[in-house]
Amino acid sequence: MNPKPKKPFYKRWWFITLVVFALLGAIGDLFDGEEPAASDPNPIVDSDVKEKPEEVEPVPEPEPEPEIRTYTAEQIALLERSYTDFSEEEIASFANMIRDWDFLSEEDKTLYEVNYLRLKDEKKAYDDEKARIEKEEREKAEAEAKAQAEAEAKAKWDAFVAENSKTLGAGTFYSPDHIAEGVYDTSFTGSGNFFITGNGGLDYNEIGGGSYGVSKIRVYITDTAEIEIRGMKVNFVPVQRTPLPVTGFTLYAGFWQVGDEIPTGRYEVKPGRGESGNFFVFGKNNVNEILGGSYGVESVTINVTDGDIVNIRGMENVTFTPTN
After folding, report:
1. DSSP H helical segments within the chain, as ranges?
2. Of 51, 109, 154, 175, which one has the fewest beta carbons inside 10 Å?
3. 3-class state of residue 173 by DSSP
4. Rounded to whole angstroms, how far apart are CA atoms 254 and 202?
5. Is 114 helix (H, G, I), strand (E, B) or coil?
6. What is the distance between the alpha carbons of residues 184 and 225, in angstroms, rounded to a whole number?
7. Residue ranges of the chain whose pLDDT lies below 70
8. Which among 71, 130, 128 has a CA at the least distance from the CA of 98?
9. Distances (CA, A) of 307 to 9, 15, 240, 245, 310
């Protein structure tokens, strides 16, 4: 008995089953990698989808109407009174009512017009009178303070004059031991020599009295001055520096301060008839001249400014005339 021949493997059921599954897997992969269809340029729009509305700018709310204010019964009563009767609190309240004008009702504005203008005039009269009284009181207080200061200054000056109006004879004297620092007019009893040294640059060397000397000298004595008197007595009288007239003036021997005594300006300076001596200006403007006599000039034109010092020696009649 011949054996039954075997089927080839490709005809067997298991091989056919594997081939079927392989084909099914390949077909699935083919559909998974398929390109998507191109988008339609004119897609169908669902009529149920609503378009987004356009944004609208918000409309600003209108400005609120200004607040209308009305007066209280107390404020109305205040308006009907006299301003001069107001207390400090009522004055402040009245001032606040003035600021409310733009917010008042027409009725209160009418009330204001009737009473406010009257009160305003009363207020002005009251303020003017108050200011006048305050001004008078202030001026009175200032005048009293000034008078008191002047009285005190005069009393102090009178005491200084009384203490330092003195006559010193021949000898050597020192300031402030024998005479206080200050400005003096000096005159002479007899004739002799008068020296002041150590005086802060304002030194003196003059002949006083007699036919060859001067009759008076304006001196300034510092608290380091040494005074030497020979052959005569010297009378010291304290003086205060006072401004000289700008129209012209006459000076005598001594030191003179520009600004305190001599006004600043330009002057023609001449010695008195028969006078002869030395003339100096120290400071911003420097002058050194002999005036009069055989060796001096008839006049000298000078400029002087505040702080300059004029020194006249050997003459007691020197005229200053303003010039261009």
Report:
1. 13-32, 73-79, 88-99, 106-164
2. 51
3. strand
4. 9
5. helix
6. 13
7. 1-56, 64-66, 98
8. 71
9. 145, 140, 17, 18, 10
Length of the chain: 324
pLDDT for 7-23, tens place per residue?
565 566 666 666 666 66
The token pair at 219 is: 């001196």
117-132, pLDDT tens digit by residue? 788 888 899 899 999 9
In whole angstroms, give the CA distance from residue 257 to residue 247: 17
Beta bridge partner(s), residue 200: none
Asked whether the beta carbons of 193 and 230 are under 8 A apart, the reply is: yes
Q: What is the pLDDT at residue 27?
A: 59
Helix axes 88-99, 106-164, angle to 10 degrees: 130
Would you state the structure tokens that stand for residue 229, as one six-digit string? 């008197």
What backbone phi and psi angles, to 5 degrees, belong to 64? Answer: -70, 145
Q: Residue 260: left if φ>0, alpha if ψ -120 to 50, beta else—which one?
A: alpha
